[in-house]
Recover the amino acids of this structure.
């Protein structure tokens, strides 16, 4: 970890594809060390540079899902009389879900999983997005057309 962090200031010296691989490795390093908030920006850089690399989308989707679950737990613990807090938590939950969904959908389209599909459907139901749920199959077909499972470093 120390070596990876020491190299970060010099990442811009790497060729673009090697830099993307490096950013993915740093994100994975932070994720494996349970430093998810540190992993997110590196994974986001990789997703931006290689939008069809579904592996990074799976990581992002599940990290954002973790945030949504944390907010959902807070919402469940709040009392009905805390209307302002409930409203703020509901908005935060919806925002976290909306961040997770596109990433989970790309991962699902490229590497189908019954578990991920069930999560996606539940999230749409939780935020009461019937249109998103009803158009899911067509989006998955479109997203599945250009899937990348290995980063090219050449």
């Amino acid at each position: 970890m120390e070596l990876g962090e020491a190299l970060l200031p010099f990442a811009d010296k790497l060729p673009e594809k090697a830099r993307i691989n490096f950013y993915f490795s740093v994100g994975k390093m932070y994720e494996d060390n349970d430093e998810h908030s540190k992993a997110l920006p590196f994974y986001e850089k990789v997703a931006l540079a290689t939008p069809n690399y579904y592996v990074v989308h799976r990581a992002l989707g599940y990290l954002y899902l973790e945030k949504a679950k944390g907010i959902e737990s807070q919402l469940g613990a709040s009392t009905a009389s805390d209307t302002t807090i409930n409203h703020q938590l509901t908005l935060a939950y919806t925002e976290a879900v909306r961040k997770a969904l596109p990433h989970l959908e790309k991962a699902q389209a490229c590497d189908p999983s019954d578990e991920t599909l069930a999560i996606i459907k539940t999230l749409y139901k939780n935020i009461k997005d019937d249109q998103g749920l009803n158009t899911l199959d067509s989006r998955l077909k479109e997203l599945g057309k250009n899937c990348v499972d290995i980063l090219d470093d050449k």
